[in-house]
Amino acid sequence: MEMQLKIEVTENPKLDETEFMVQQLIQFNSHRAGDGNFRQLAVFLRDTQETIVGGLIGSIYWQWLYIDVFWISESHRGGGYGSSLLAAAEQEAIARGCEYSYFWIRLAFRHRNFIRSLVILCLVSYQIFR
Question: Which of 36, 69, 72, 76 could cross-link with 62 by S-S, CB 3.0 to 4.6 Å?
Fold first, then answer.
């Protein structure tokens, strides 16, 4: 007897369900490509009250730094914090043995000057991979 499956589409997935999916993918990839020493990485920008006003969230595995989430509050944009956060993540990634990084810009609402400086940063600090 064939099991009945259903497809569910949601805009509000539960955190434990998304974490389950991520862990299943990590396990699958580890079985096929070996242990990639998967570790999460978070770099936070905090104010004097320890409130998070920016940061990035990513992961490190197979000598790659993957940046998934990058945000700075509007009141702190334009002060060079974005570049500083990326530099801190890059330094930590290098310390953990990374040789490559992947940063996907998800939204087009980014500050134009930051995008320009990010492109310059990429040209100076990063190597094109094939």
Answer: 36
